């Protein structure tokens, strides 16, 4: 039980973290406020000392560290959180990429026409 509480404590730091876990069906929130539940989860693990040699979720934690440490996943997460967080932002990024491709095609065509 202490291993599970420790893992949940590491997952939930803010009410937004808890909201994400509730949206994906990992946690069921029966209280009214997400901040109360995140505070509850963060306070459950106080006073625990876990041995990392026999930690039940050690493999899961290592897999998560490996996954999050990959540069591709960091870049993709940064792109989603900062640039693709609204439908208008997604539309503007698609339009910018489309215009960049058209500009590249125009430059190649004008180089070919001068040769």
UniProtKB/TrEMBL annotation:
Pfam families: DUF247. It comes from the Eukaryota. The chain crosses the membrane at residues 88-112. Keywords: Membrane, Transmembrane, Transmembrane helix. InterPro entries: DUF247_pln. This is UPF0481 protein.
């Amino acid at each position: 039980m202490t291993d599970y509480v420790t893992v949940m404590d590491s997952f939930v730091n803010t009410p937004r973290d808890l909201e994400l876990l509730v949206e994906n069906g990992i946690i069921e929130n029966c209280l009214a406020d997400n901040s109360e539940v995140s505070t509850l989860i963060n306070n459950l693990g106080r006073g625990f000392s876990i041995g990392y040699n026999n930690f039940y979720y050690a493999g899961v934690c290592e897999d998560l560290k490996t996954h999050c440490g990959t540069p591709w996943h960091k870049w993709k997460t940064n792109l989603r959180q900062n640039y693709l967080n609204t439908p208008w932002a997604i539309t503007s990024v698609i339009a910018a990429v489309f215009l960049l491709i058209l500009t590249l095609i125009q430059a190649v065509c004008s180089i070919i026409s001068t040769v």
